[in-house]
């Protein structure tokens, strides 16, 4: 390390993780520089969360208009103005962009360097022809779309999440390679906006999620007219674009979206010059996000691989990592990653939200568990709104402690926070069942599921005998 570094902290990458730790460091008066080679705000603002949710909002509005007849409100088939939809998407980006802008971070006291950064040695970086020295360096360079090694794929035009929102024309028939969160969200969005959509997935759609809950999303996609080809492989891609499946079937579309996962942005960082070890999964760190091989270097967000458990490609994980780094770097306090209560949401309609262990994960880990369910079909608010599809599903230990929670239904993402707190604080199903929630709300579905844990005991013969005995006492 240099004797007198010019910076207390250098941050590579202006996405969620990088911006968050820079904000805290700058507000506390540290000498901090954030280095970004592309756009401030990273994927989330420019090509991920914000544009995708804006596009989905337009799609959900169209779907709601089509469903309005169930409530006695008859509307004509929605007219999709693709240019206006695109304007809404890019307007959402523009409205949020000032929060992530160079101007804002410079006003906080941070130095913003718009260039590519690479390590030139321990504690030293080169960015835009300038040599920087720093006491601590945080690598938050994010990730990019993975492109599978399929013959012919790189020879035909295709989109990823980074380019799909820039399409000026509405796709006539969108082929989507991959049925994970991005794939199913974009499938439903484009189908609701009047496009033909076919999803090709080698497993099942939403394969990472609980199968019972994922079936709710699958049914919604089919209702929207999305064609699902599950359990198939793509042998080749030909101009058209045409997907040639393993069984010889040929699927022709007008546009192709590759949604086959993500890859950390490790290239060009010069990590070896600083002695930073990385694998294809990301920079190897301890649970406190410090590099295992370079003590002055930390990693955060999509590029961090703490203790080999792999990255979590979620925007809120970047902000979570920033909080850990603030405690460790700025205040020298112990802090470590704990994904036990990490929520995730697939923003289809209905949404699918999960936190903690799924039923399959718990049983694979050898846990003896009970599974508690309650359907939206038995929720008064859902019935009143005519949206009764889905359910809440809780995974609890035999003693009743919450291990996992999943909700498939309208607004599930807004309800998962309660279960994130409950699992994080190691609460029991009975503790949540004892909460008082406003009526009528969809949140009652989860509470009703939790209450089923004790119902067998409550109405058991022994309890019935006790109540009768107590009833004979005077007073």
From TrEMBL:
Cofactor: FAD
UniProt cross-references to Pfam families, sorted A to Z: Pyr_redox_2, Pyr_redox_dim
GO molecular function, one term: oxidoreductase activity, acting on a sulfur group of donors, NAD(P) as acceptor
Residue runs in coiled coils: none
Domain of life: Bacteria
UniProt domain FAD/NAD(P)-binding: residue ranges: 8-308
Record note on cofactor: Binds 1 FAD per subunit.
Domain Pyridine nucleotide-disulphide oxidoreductase dimerisation per the UniProt entry, residue ranges: 343-449
Disulfide cross-links: 44-49
Binding-site positions, FAD: 53, 302
Residues noted as binding NAD(+) in the record, renumbered to the chain: 178-185, 201, 261
Keywords of the record: Disulfide bond, FAD, Flavoprotein, NAD, NADP, Nucleotide-binding, Oxidoreductase, Redox-active center
Family: Belongs to the class-I pyridine nucleotide-disulfide oxidoreductase family.
Protein name: Dihydrolipoamide dehydrogenase
Organism: Muricoccus nepalensis
């Amino acid at each position: 390390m240099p004797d007198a570094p010019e910076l207390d902290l250098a941050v590579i990458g202006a996405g969620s993780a990088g911006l968050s730790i820079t904000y805290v460091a700058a507000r506390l008066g540290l000498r901090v520089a954030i280095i970004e080679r592309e756009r401030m705000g990273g994927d989330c603002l420019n090509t991920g969360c914000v544009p995708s949710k804006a596009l989905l909002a337009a799609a959900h509005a169209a779907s709601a208009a089509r469903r309005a007849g169930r409530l006695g409100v008859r509307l004509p088939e929605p007219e999709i103005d693709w240019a206006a939809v695109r304007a809404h998407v890019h307007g959402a980006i523009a409205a949020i962009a000032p929060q992530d802008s160079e101007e804002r971070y410079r006003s906080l006291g941070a130095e913003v360097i718009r260039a590519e950064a690479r390590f030139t040695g321990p504690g030293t970086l080169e960015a835009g022809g300038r040599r920087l020295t720093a006491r601590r360096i945080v690598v938050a360079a994010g990730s990019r779309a993975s492109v599978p090694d399929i013959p012919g794929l790189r020879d035909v035009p295709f989109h990823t999440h980074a380019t799909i929102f820039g399409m000026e024309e509405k796709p006539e028939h969108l082929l989507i390679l991959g049925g994970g969160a991005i794939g199913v969200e974009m499938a439903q969005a484009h189908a609701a906006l009047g496009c033909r959509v076919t999803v090709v997935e080698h497993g099942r759609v939403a394969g990472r999620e609980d199968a019972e809950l994922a079936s709710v999303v699958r049914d919604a996609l089919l209702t929207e007219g999305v064609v699902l080809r599950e359990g198939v492989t793509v042998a080749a891609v030909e101009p058209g674009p045409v997907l040639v499946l393993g069984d010889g079937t040929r699927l022709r579309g007008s546009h192709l979206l590759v949604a086959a996962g993500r890859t950390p942005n490790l290239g060009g960082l010069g990590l070896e010059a600083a002695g930073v070890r990385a694998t294809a999964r990301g920079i190897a760190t301890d649970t406190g996000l410090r590099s295992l091989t370079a003590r002055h270097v930390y990693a955060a967000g999509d590029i961090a691989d703490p203790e080999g458990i792999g990255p979590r490609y979620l925007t809120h994980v970047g902000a979570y990592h920033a909080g850990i780094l603030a405690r460790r770097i700025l205040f020298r306090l112990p802090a470590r990653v704990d994904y036990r209560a990490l929520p995730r949401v697939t923003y289809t309609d209905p949404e699918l939200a999960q936190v903690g262990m799924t039923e399959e994960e718990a049983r694979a880990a050898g846990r003896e568990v009970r599974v508690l369910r309650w359907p939206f079909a038995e929720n008064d608010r859902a019935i009143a709104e005519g949206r009764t599809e889905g359910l809440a599903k809780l995974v609890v230990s035999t003693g009743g402690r919450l291990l996992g929670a999943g909700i498939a239904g309208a607004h599930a993402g807004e309800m998962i926070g309660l279960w994130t707190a409950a699992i994080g604080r190691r609460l029991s199903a009975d503790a949540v069942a004892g909460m008082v929630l406003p009526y009528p709300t969809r949140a009652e579905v989860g509470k009703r599921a939790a209450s089923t844990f004790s119902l067998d005991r409550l109405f058991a013969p022994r309890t019935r005998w006790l109540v009768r005995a107590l009833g004979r006492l005077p007073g």
